[in-house]
Specification:
Helix content is 26%, strand content 14%. Strands 9-8-7-10 form a four-stranded mixed beta sheet, covered by helices on one side. The protein has a two-stranded antiparallel ribbon with strand order 1-6. A two-stranded parallel sheet has the order 2-5. Strand 7 and strand 8 form a beta hairpin. Helix 5 crosses helix 7. It starts with 34 loop residues before the first helix and ends with a strand.
Length: 284
C-alpha cells in the first residue's frame, strides 16, 4: 500500500521495486494511507528509526534492495529507466544487492570475453541467459548490474573489503571473559535498525586493521627510592633505558605531591613511554 501511493515527482517509478521505505529513498503520500500506516510512519519519523551502525556484515549488505538504495549515489535513479535495468527487473528478477553482485561478477568469468558492453557475447553464460531468462543483451545487463553497485558508497558495497574480512576472534582474557572488539553487525537486516538517531548517516567505513610493528624497541624501566639523610625526607625517581639511539632514555624525579615510592616511579616511566613512543611492544 505504501508503494502504491507515490508522490507526483516519482510517478514513473515502478511500484514493484518499492519494497521497503526504510531501506529505499522513495517517498509516499502519507495522507492517502490507512490511519494505522500513517501512525507507524509518523512514530518512525519522530523517534528517528533508521539503519545505523559502524559496519555491517556482507550478508546484511547483500540483503538490501538495490533499486533506490537509501545510501546510493543519486545517479542510481537514472539507471532505473534504461532498457538493461528493465530487463534486469523483468527477466532476471533482480531485487537485492547480492543478486546484482552475482550478475556483475559474470564479467570476470574467463569464458566471457566481450569487453565492449554494446556487443553481444556468444559464450555459454550469455547463451544460457538468453535461453532461460529471455535476456535481450546479457552483456549489457552485466554492465548495468555493475553500474548499480558502483553507485553504492564503500560502506554499503559488499564488493569491497569489509571489517568482517579481517576482524579477529574475541580475545580470551585471564580474568575469565572475552574481550570482543568486533564492531560489525551480523544477523538479519532487522538488527541494523536503531531508534532515537539524529544527524546524517555516517557513510565512512573505518579501517580498524592492526598495523604490524615496523620496529620493536626493548625498554627497561627502574623505579628508585632513597632517603635524604640531611633532611630526613624520602625521594623517588625512575630511569628509562632502551636499546639503540632513539632518544627515549630518561632520568626523572617523582613530584613531591605524589607518594615517594619506587612503584610510583615505575608507573611514571610506563606513562611517559606510552605518551612518547606508542609503537613500543616489549618492556621490562
Amino acid at each position: 500500500m505504501i508503494a502504491h501511493q507515490g508522490t507526483k515527482a516519482e510517478i514513473n517509478i515502478p511500484k514493484e521495486i518499492k519494497s521497503n521505505i526504510f531501506l529505499q529513498s522513495f517517498n509516499t503520500k502519507k495522507y492517502m494511507l490507512l490511519p494505522d500506516l500513517q501512525r507507524i510512519l509518523n512514530v518512525a519519523k519522530k523517534t528517528g528509526v533508521r539503519v545505523e551502525g559502524i559496519a555491517f556484515s556482507r550478508d546484511i549488505l547483500q540483503s538490501h534492495p538495490i533499486w533506490y538504495h537509501s545510501e546510493a549515489n543519486p545517479r542510481l535513479c537514472l539507471l532505473t529507466c534504461s532498457s538493461a535495468s528493465l530487463c534486469l527487473r523483468e527477466n532476471h528478477n533482480l531485487q537485492m544487492v547480492g543478486e546484482a553482485e552475482e550478475i556483475s561478477l559474470l564479467l570476470d568469468n574467463p569464458n566471457h570475453e566481450i569487453t565492449n558492453r554494446v556487443n553481444r557475447c556468444i559464450c555459454y553464460i550469455c547463451e544460457a541467459m538468453i535461453e532461460n531468462m529471455e535476456c535481450r543483451n546479457s552483456n549489457e545487463c552485466m554492465h548495468c548490474a555493475k553500474d548499480l553497485l558502483d553507485t553504492l558508497l564503500r560502506k554499503w558495497d559488499p564488493c569491497y573489503m569489509l571489517l568482517e574480512d579481517y576482524e579477529e576472534a574475541p580475545e580470551q582474557l585471564n580474568v575469565g571473559f572475552e574481550f570482543d572488539r568486533h564492531v560489525t553487525i551480523h544477523g538479519p537486516v532487522a538488527n541494523t535498525f536503531c531508534i532515537f538517531t539524529e544527524g546524517r548517516v555516517s557513510n565512512v567505513l573505518p579501517d580498524l586493521r592492526i598495523a604490524a610493528p615496523t620496529t620493536i624497541v626493548k625498554v627497561t624501566t627502574s623505579g628508585t627510592y632513597c632517603e635524604v639523610t640531611s633532611t630526613n625526607e624520602s625521594r623517588a625517581g625512575t630511569g628509562i633505558f632502551t636499546t639503540g639511539e632513539n632518544g627515549l632514555e630518561r632520568a626523572l624525579k617523582v613530584l613531591q605531591s605524589l607518594h615517594q615510592f619506587d612503584q610510583v616511579g615505575g608507573a611514571l616511566a610506563a606513562k611517559i613511554l606510552a605518551d612518547c613512543q606508542p609503537q613500543i611492544y616489549s618492556t621490562q
